[in-house]
Amino acid sequence: TYLSLSARVVSKAGHPELIPNDLAEHLIRFTGPPRTAFRTRPLFEIFVPEYWEHNFGSGELVRDKIVVIGAEGKWQKDELLTPFGPMPGAEVHLNVLNGLLHGESVSDLSPFARAVVTILTAILGSALWLSIRSPWLRLLALGGIDAVTPFFALWFYNHQNLYLPCLAPLLALNSTVFFGLVSDFTFERIEKARLQSALQTRDDLTHMIIHDLRAPLNLVTGYVDILEQMASDKLNPDEAECVTGAKQGADDMGDMITTLLDVGRLEAGEMPLRLQGYDLAEIAREAADRFTPVLRDRTLRCEMPPEPVAVSCDADVIRRILENLLSNALKFTKSDGTIRINVARTGADVTVSVSDNGEGIPRDQHEYIFEKFGQTNSGRQHRHSTGLGLAFCRLAVEAHQGKIGVQ
What integer is the mean pLDDT of 86-90? Predict the structure, then answer.
């Protein structure tokens, strides 16, 4: 069971050429545990027993030993690709011989064991694929498996003399990852493009319809105005009330159309603001005064600082924002409730708040209500609610470089 190797390559007779000293290191790295080896010696020392008897008192240098001699010296140019990199053919042959003599030949897996390895690899890849939603994290996780598995197989090869057929399953796994990522990104782009196209078509159609509604609505509003002027002379009280209701409905529809068109213009950045210096407290008072006639039993309190609150803004747009907020507060405040509008300056910032003691807005819907057509469940019960008012408020406030939110 004991083996020592002494290798010699002679390019020409009488001109011995020593094998490099790192050959033993290659043998150790390739076969596993170190083996006892001779140092390289000239040929005449090996084949002249008298030399050993004269110098060492023994001529048994090669007894029970194997001496490998290459007479052509081709191994230096004849390299074979191995799992450990390029190696000379002589080195590979010596390692094979060493492994056979020590009973350390590499064993292969049975077909059943190979199938198990492949199935386990597929299960692991599928589990990671399903559990990780981000394509980039999938790539990172599966790439880590690809990087670690060869070293795992190399450990088995060096220490257990077992060949694990990990390459084919890994190639299959990599192919699955590649095509899966490509399909994810491709279909995601296609779906996004389709969705964007559908949304653009919807917005264009809506804008066209809303814009075309203005002409007939203006005609209706004009006739209703004429009827309203005649109401006191030619209509009885019930008929006059009907005319007033029609006028209010036409005005509400006109406001809805204006809001929807303005939301589209703000989203497209096509609504220029006429910025000038104004007293924000005065704008807030004007907005509050509009709701005084419809308060009924509700209370509207204005909390303003005594001095002017000068800001640069578009007064008409800011007034519409406050009217939208006050209108919402009025809708959801009971008859004996209180609505407050507060203007305060904190350093360089100005804060305007509209509050009420109504039913409130669920916390999970605080962001949603500022989206287009975003409404709370209670908001959908109001027939005059379109879900556009707060969307307009958000876009208009952001156009003024401000922020809007719910507490």
Answer: 67
pLDDT tens, 26-72?
333 333 344 444 455 565 665 666 666 666 655 555 555 555 554 33
Distance CA 386, CA 71 (A): 96
Model pLDDT for residues 239-294, shown as the tens digit of each residue: 777 877 887 777 777 777 777 777 777 777 777 888 888 888 898 888 888 888 77
CB atoms within 10 A of CB 311: 21
Computed from CA positions of residues 53, 55, 58, 61, in that sequence, does the dihedral angle turn out positive or negative?
Answer: negative
390 and 283 share a domain?
Answer: yes
Q: Quick check: 223 and 186 in contact, CB under 8 A?
A: no
- Distance (Å, whole) CA 43 – CA 8: 8
How many domains does the structure of the chain reveal? 4
Q: Domain for residue 406, yes or no?
A: no
Structural domain range at position 393: 276-399
Q: Are residues 22 and 97 in the same domain?
A: yes
- pTM score, whole prediction: 0.46
- Residue 146 tokens read as 């690809």
